[in-house]
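for the recovery benchmark. tokens below, seq after
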């Protein structure tokens, strides 16, 4: 089924369709912008962390390189010569020279480190740490030395031997170099990096924990450390996580020299806040625009759609024949004028229809009066010939009976002062008519059964006579054998019913159906006006539910049922009145 939209629905859909592409395009643009900025945040965080890692690795590489190259210094090699071993003065002088060289290196280096030299052959030790005493203990170097920096007691330490092949058994080496630097050097770099950027870098090791800058958020770093510890980390990478209800991007790089991870995290929302604020402002504007659009649509609905719907409903009722419809104008606008004009038009149409209808009723009543005043000449001639014949035959009783019944009959049908009569009056008139017909047709019998409560009910005048006349003329007279007419009445729940049956020749179902249809059609020259007038008068006086109904009779002829519901019901007795004649 094809949908049909009214003007209001089309306007509402148009407003919605205008908002949908705007919202869709902005949402797509916003997502693309956020995606670009997120990628930039990730790249910047990764690049910044890579720069920091390179700086740290560069310093550590210098320390490691110095540890390897220091073994090639001539002073250190001379310090291990046998002739210097036997000359204490020269050894002290040489040791002072070695320490000066190491101090000069520390002075030139970015990081201050503690360099300690162990001489397994002479079991001596030299160190730039003047606040501690270092001695060579063979048991300290019984195990192989680690080949990477290791963290302990807040410092990173790295060992090398001369030759390098002695790392697995340091006691066989000529020189063991130990270089250590405090973790505060890394903390300083972390502070410097944080001051220049928006991140919060730190170092992470699954076994050792974290090394943070001085102003680090310990709570967030502790939560992030737990996540890093539970994750499988590659040599470098990044991921997004949520800490304390805020989304962060975490970037990490593994340090091959230290064995730790350089980690940095930045809040995504803080960087995206301008775009988020712009997005929220846009959606707020759209919401306000939508509310305003709904307000405009509501105003249009009240000011335009409701009057249009009211006008459409009124027009439909008017076209269906309800000319009493009136519209209720509201407000003071153009539609109020239109609705007012519609009411004037409907009133004028109603008055015109009522005038036409009244004229039609007057014409119908005039026709009815004419019918009531008409006397069937053939019927009158037959009755007069019957009286003449009975008079010649000296049958005074038949002459008197025919004259009295004929007089009462014509007195009733020629009364025109009132369209309504009682059922009692109609039955009396019908009795006179049937007595006249039974005198003429000795082979006809009739039966009338009426309950007393029905006799005082109003009914239109001359309701039964045309029906009984049709039963005699079209039902009984065409057949040779005796005929019967049966008239019965009932009164139940305020509804009056009278049935007229005959034992005549009857009719086929198609003929009965055609007669029933003719009752609702306009009168034309091909239709009998008797029963049509009866049906029309009953409908006019008692409503659409009143009228005639055709059906087959159990007697063999036609049964006509007359039904109506009086406006003023009358109560009567409960004993039935029965009349039988021949």
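predicted aa per position
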């Amino acid at each position: 089924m094809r949908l049909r939209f009214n003007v209001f629905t089309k306007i509402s859909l148009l407003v919605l369709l205008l908002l949908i592409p705007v919202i869709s395009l902005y949402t797509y643009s916003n997502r693309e912008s956020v995606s670009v900025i997120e990628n930039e945040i990730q790249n910047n965080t990764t690049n910044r962390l890579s720069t920091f890692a390179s700086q740290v690795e560069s310093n550590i590489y210098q320390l490691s390189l110095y540890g390897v190259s220091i073994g090639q210094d001539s002073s250190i090699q001379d310090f291990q010569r046998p002739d210097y071993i036997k000359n204490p003065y020269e050894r002290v002088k040489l040791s002072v020279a070695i320490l000066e060289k190491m101090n000069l290196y520390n002075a030139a280096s970015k990081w201050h480190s503690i360099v300690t030299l162990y001489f397994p052959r002479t079991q001596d030790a030299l160190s730039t740490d003047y606040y501690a005493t270092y001695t060579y203990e063979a048991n300290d170097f019984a195990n192989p030395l680690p080949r990477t920096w290791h963290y302990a007691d807040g410092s990173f330490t790295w060992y090398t031997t001369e030759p390098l092949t002695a790392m697995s058994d340091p006691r066989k080496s000529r020189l063991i170099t130990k270089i250590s630097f405090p973790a505060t050097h890394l903390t300083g770099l972390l502070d410097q990096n944080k001051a220049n950027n928006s991140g919060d870098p730190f170092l992470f090791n699954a076994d050792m924990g974290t090394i943070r800058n001085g102003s680090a958020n310990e709570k967030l770093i502790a939560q992030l450390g737990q996540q890093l510890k539970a994750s499988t980390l590659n040599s470098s990478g990044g991921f997004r996580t949520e800490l304390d209800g805020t989304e962060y991007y975490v970037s990490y790089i593994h340090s091959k020299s230290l064995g730790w991870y350089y980690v940095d995290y930045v809040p995504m929302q803080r960087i995206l806040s301008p775009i988020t604020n712009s997005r929220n402002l846009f959606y707020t504007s759209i919401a306000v625009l939508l509310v305003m659009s709904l307000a405009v649509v509501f105003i249009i609905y009240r000011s335009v759609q409701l009057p249009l719907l009211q006008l459409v409903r009124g027009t439909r009722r008017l076209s269906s024949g309800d000319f009493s419809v009136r519209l209720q104008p509201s407000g003071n606008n153009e539609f109020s004028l239109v609705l007012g004009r519609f009411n004037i038009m409907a009133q004028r149409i109603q008055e015109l229809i009522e005038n036409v209808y009244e004229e039609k009723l007057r014409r119908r009543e005039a026709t009815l009066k004419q019918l009531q005043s008409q006397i069937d000449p053939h019927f009158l001639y037959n009755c007069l010939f019957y009286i003449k014949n009975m008079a010649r035959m000296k049958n005074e009783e038949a002459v008197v009976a025919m004259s009295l019944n004929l007089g009462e009959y014509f007195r009733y049908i020629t009364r025109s002062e009132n369209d309504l009569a009682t059922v009692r009056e109609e039955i009396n008139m019908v009795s006179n008519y049937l007595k006249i017909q039974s005198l003429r047709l000795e082979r006809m019998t009739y039966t009338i059964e009426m309950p007393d409560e029905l006799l005082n009910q109003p009914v239109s005048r001359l309701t039964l006579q045309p029906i009984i006349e049709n039963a005699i003329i079209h039902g009984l007279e065409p057949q040779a054998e005796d005929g019967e007419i049966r008239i019965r009445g009932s009164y139940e729940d305020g509804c009056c019913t009278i049935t007229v049956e005959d034992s005549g020749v009857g009719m086929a179902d198609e003929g009965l159906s055609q007669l029933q249809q003719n009752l609702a059609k306009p009168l034309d020259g091909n239709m009998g006006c008797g029963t049509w007038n009866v049906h029309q008068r009953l409908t006019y006086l008692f409503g659409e539910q009143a009228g005639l109904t055709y059906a087959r009779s159990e007697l063999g002829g036609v049964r006509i049922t007359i039904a109506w519901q009086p406006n003023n019901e009358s109560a009567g007795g409960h004993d039935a009145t029965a009349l039988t004649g021949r």
